[in-house]
């Protein structure tokens, strides 16, 4: 089976751009050095046991670390964290410089995020040019905040609507 090219691939990209996705920074340690990358391909998988899935690019330095350590942290970003999302989406060794974080469950945890999950890697599944990391949640933390979402190649947030379709504030 070959990958779609031309109009199908272009349309696929357009369709997926219209899907709102959560934004998270996935983290791990390489020795004592923290690593992290921004992702928008992240979702819950199972309640019993609690599991999540996150897709990492096959070329990602972080994926190589996760393969070795079998640990992954997921920092779910709030609407005020667009700057963090942009920072961790880039390349370079200084992503954590000036960022408030701590070691939690043996993983880098960013301060002030709306959610935190520490996971043991259960399996890695190849999916095209990405690998899907299946993680069993071994630690979690949460605080109420509007989510940071990615839609049409830009960051935004979600506001709940009432039954009549009016923003509920």
Structure description:
With 169 residues, the protein is α+β, with helices and mostly antiparallel strands. It has a single domain (22-149), classed as Pnp Oxidase, Chain A (Roll). The chain has three helices and twelve strands. The chain has helices at 7-17, 61-69, 82-89; strands at residues 21-22, 24-30, 33-39, 42-46, 51-57, 71-76, 101-104, 107-110, 115-127, 130-142, 149-151, 154-156. A hairpin with a 2-residue loop joins strand 9 and strand 10 (130-142). It holds the Pfam family Flavin_Reduct. Keywords: Oxidoreductase. This is Flavin reductase family protein. One of its GO terms (molecular function) is oxidoreductase activity.
Could you provide a short overview of the structure?
This protein is α+β, with helices and mostly antiparallel strands. The chain has 3 helices and 12 strands. It has helices at 7-17, 61-69, 82-89; strands at residues 21-22, 24-30, 33-39, 42-46, 51-57, 71-76, 101-104, 107-110, 115-127, 130-142, 149-151, 154-156.
Number of domains: 1
- The rough form would be described as globular
Give the terminus-to-terminus CA distance. Answer: 49 Å
Say what the CATH topology is: Pnp Oxidase, Chain A
Secondary structure elements and pairings:
Blueprint: H1 7-17, E1 21-22, E2 24-30, E3 33-39, E4 42-46, E5 51-57, H2 61-69, E6 71-76, H3 82-89, E7 101-104, E8 107-110, E9 115-127, E10 130-142, E11 149-151, E12 154-156
Antiparallel strand pairs: 1-11, 2-3, 2-6, 4-5, 5-10, 6-9, 7-8, 9-10, 11-12
GO molecular function, one term: oxidoreductase activity
InterPro entries: Flavin_Rdtase-like_dom, NADH-dep_flavin_reductase, Split_barrel_FMN-bd
Protein name: Flavin reductase family protein
């Amino acid at each position: 089976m070959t990958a779609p090219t031309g109009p199908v691939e272009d349309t696929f990209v357009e369709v997926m751009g219209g899907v709102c996705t959560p934004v998270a920074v996935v983290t791990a340690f390489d020795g004592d050095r923290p690593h992290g990358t921004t992702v928008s391909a992240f979702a819950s998988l199972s309640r019993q046991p609690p599991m999540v899935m996150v897709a990492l690019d096959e070329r990602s330095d972080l994926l190589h670390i996760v393969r070795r350590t079998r640990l992954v942290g997921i920092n779910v970003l709030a609407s005020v964290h667009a700057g963090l999302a942009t920072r961790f989406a880039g390349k370079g060794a200084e992503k954590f410089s000036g960022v408030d974080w701590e070691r939690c469950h043996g993983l880098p945890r960013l301060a002030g995020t709306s959610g935190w999950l520490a996971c043991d890697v259960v399996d890695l599944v190849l999916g095209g040019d990405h690998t899907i990391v299946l993680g069993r949640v071994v630690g979690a933390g949460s605080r109420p905040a509007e989510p940071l979402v990615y839609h049409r190649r830009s960051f935004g947030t979600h506001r709940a609507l009432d039954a009549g379709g009016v923003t509920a504030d």
